[in-house]
Amino acid sequence: MKSNISQKLEMKFPPIVLIKTNAKPENAISPKPNKGGCVMSFIAQTIAKRKTTCFGRENIKCGGIASGFGWGSGLANEDAIDFQASFLSCGIESAPDREEYLNRLSKMAKHTQEMFRHGERIFSDFETAKENIKNRPIYDSEDYVVFKGIEDLEDGEIPKSVIFTVNPIELTALLQINSSFRDNGACILTPQASACQAIGNFTFREDESDEPKPILGPIDFAGRSKMKHFIPNEYMMISMPWKLFLKLEEVSECSVLQTDLWKKFK
């Protein structure tokens, strides 16, 4: 399948899709079993190199990724929630039990310890981080998540998320198309979420809405840092449920893309 929007915009990076499945594709690249770390470097290769990437429950150790890909909360108990809330805010400064937090850090690799010591600072304080963690949309289905170019979508496959990677002008056009058929001002969402959650569980939740909205990201620098080798810094990502993608494709046939105004930016 090809995207009319991508072709009209002459995108450097055509959209990719996220598919949930119980069958692991043979041609996909994946993290090594029991190997932790951010998945965004793999997803960036799907975007830039059009490689199919696959992630399974068995090789994901990060609770944030687990919730992002729809494998439960990824957090076994209240202590795990407190640890993640500390990390996502100000690290050791935010930890309610600093001794226990430092004890967990001591078991990490040295380069990872430093990041966890200072915290990712997505949230300003522990309480806000914990409340946001508890309010994440939680799903639990299928064993694998597969990312591939939309051109590799097979008959009968229905993506859970379609992801555009756009520069500022492409973003402007896509936002205008997305807003053009709505009658209210809240046309896009920017949840305070990690990159994998923005394109995953937060997009899954929009699929349940009668008026789904796209998700703009990544707004976490940890996720961006893993992508910058493949994707220029000025690019953003917009993810959306399949039904919204089809709507935008339809609307784009009679949109700003057919105007002389748009031709000035080609």
Structure description:
The chain has helices spanning about 5-10, 40-50, 65-70, 80-90, 100-105, 110-120, 125-135, 170-180, 195-200, 200-205, 220-225, 240-250, 260-265, and strands spanning about 15-20, 55, 145-150, 160-165, 215, 235-240. The chain has 2 domains: about 5-60 and about 140-265, no CATH class; about 75-135, no CATH class. It has 13 helices and 6 strands. A 6-stranded antiparallel beta sheet has the order 2-3-1-4-6-5. The protein is α+β, with helices and mostly antiparallel strands and about 270 residues long. It is globular and about 65 Å long.
Supply the key terms.
266 residues, alpha+beta, 2 domains, 6-stranded antiparallel β-sheet, 39% helix, globular
Please outline the helices and strands:
Layout: H1 4-9, E1 16-21, H2 40-49, E2 53-56, H3 63-68, H4 78-88, H5 98-105, H6 110-118, H7 126-134, E3 144-149, E4 161-166, H8 168-179, H9 195-199, H10 201-206, E5 215-217, H11 221-227, E6 236-240, H12 242-251, H13 260-263
Antiparallel strand pairs: 1-3, 1-4, 2-3, 4-6, 5-6
Helix pairs in contact: 2-11, 4-7
Order of helices and strands: HEHEHHHHHEEHHHEHEHH
Radius of gyration: 19 Å
Helix and strand content put the structural class at: alpha+beta
Q: How many E strands?
A: 6
The pLDDT mean sits at: 94
Helix content: 25-40%
What percentage of the residues does DSSP assign to strands (E)?
Answer: 5-15%
Shape: globular
> How many distinct helices?
13
- Taken together, the total number of domains comes to 2
Distance between the termini: 24 Å
Low-confidence stretches: none
Major sheet characteristics? 6 strands, antiparallel
**Strands of the largest sheet, in order across it?**
2-3-1-4-6-5
